[in-house]
Design goal:
7-stranded mixed beta sheet
């Protein structure tokens, strides 16, 4: 160990971006002394200890204890010294792995020239695991962190928040999964649109005319229905599967009274129910026993569709509109959550915008104003 002037130490590019609470560290050093010297190379280039240097400067000191190591240990030394004081973020770990890889490749070439078995640098190779371990993460975690970091660097406005969330929480899997979904969504939206009425559609919305005939003589039945109704058997027999993509999302609107039958329809159409969206209306309507102020939409899937989930919940607020018309907020909700080049709306009485293909006896024409 030696003592070096602070102004003689060369601080180059650092893998740590956040230095943390320097004031608190300075207070600790003033109280109990410096427990670990900084680490430098033979030419006084800093390997580890930038936080201690900042703390010494804050205390008004001009020299600092230092340990000199070989250049070959530079990047490894920075991790080994800092990780026990303040964990590196996933992005910083990825940067350290990037810096370690050329060193490991050079060592691998030396081993090969010496007649020793070379180490593989593939995703699951031994060398890749050694680098990841030196950077403080597993090889898969480093690969995911690199992907998020690189995406944020290439498109900061689009992916910058993913990297910020990753580094803030220290978790890699969530931001990486979100990155994959966002890229899948971009690719899906760029697909050639399906032929209107023929599909295959990645997203379907259906609002069948549920039957009420069996309750026409019920004195409690207060509702009137200005449109033709279909029996459950007729709804189940609809040829929906041929226009649905292999990986498809279905939004099936149903009433409180027909909730049980809605699951029968999903089975007949070949979809698996996942959750239920509830529309809370701004005023009550008709109903039996209780007057209705909610309506439900079953979200079901077939295959493995892509969903861009952020903070959407199972509750949707929206004003009551004309008979059977769903709130405008619903269509915005679907477009945010479900990427697709076009959307199909079965039994439609409203066209949200040019992305929607509307089908049914009262479906508006394609050139209809989206705000009607």
């Amino acid at each position: 160990m030696t003592v070096l002037p602070l102004d003689a130490i060369k601080i180059g590019k650092r893998h740590r971006a956040d230095l943390g609470d320097i004031k608190q560290l300075a207070h600790n050093i003033a109280e109990i002394g410096l427990l670990h010297p900084i680490v430098v190379t033979s030419d006084n280039t800093l390997v580890a200890g930038v936080r201690r240097i900042m703390a010494f400067k804050a205390l008004g000191r001009t020299t600092i204890p230092a340990t000199i190591i070989d250049l070959e240990k530079t990047v490894r030394g920075e991790y080994a010294e800092n990780t026990f004081r303040k964990q590196f973020t996933p992005s910083e770990c990825a940067n350290i792995a990037d810096a370690l890889e050329p060193v490991e490749r050079a060592l691998a070439r030396e081993r090969q020239l010496a007649g020793k078995p070379p180490e593989k640098f593939s995703e699951g190779g031994e060398a890749r695991h050694k680098i990841a371990k030196a950077a403080g993460r597993s090889a898969p975690s480093i690969a995911k962190a690199r992907a998020v970091r690189d995406a944020a660097k290439a498109e900061p406005e689009k992916f910058g928040k993913l990297q910020a969330d990753m580094d803030r929480t220290g978790r890699v899997d969530g931001p990486f999964k979100r990155l994959k979904v966002m890229r899948q969504a971009t690719a899906i939206c760029a697909e050639p649109p399906p032929l209107p009425g023929r599909g295959p559609y990645r997203v379907l919305v259906a609002d069948p005319p549920w039957p009420y005939e069996i309750r026409k003589d019920d004195p409690l039945h207060r509702a009137t229905h200005p449109f033709p109704q279909m029996s459950i058997a007729q709804i189940c027999a609809l040829s929906v599967a041929p226009i649905a993509h292999t990986d498809c999302l279905l939004w099936l609107w149903t009433t409180n009274h027909h909730m049980r039958e809605a699951f029968t329809v999903l089975d007949a159409w070949g979809f698996k129910q996942k959750t239920i969206l509830t529309w809370a209306k701004d005023r009550m309507g008709t109903g039996a026993l209780l007057r209705g102020q909610t309506e439900h939409c079953l979200l079901a899937v077939r295959g493995k569709p892509v969903v861009e989930l952020t903070n959407q919940t199972t509750l949707l607020h929206g004003p009551l509109r004309a008979n059977s018309q769903k709130p405008v907020e619903f269509y915005d909700f679907v477009e945010r959550l479900c990427p697709a080049p076009r959307y199909a709306y079965l039994f439609s009485r409203y066209r949200h915008n040019e992305k929607w293909d509307c089908h049914g006896n009262e479906a508006p024409p394609a050139q209809a104003d989206a705000a009607e």
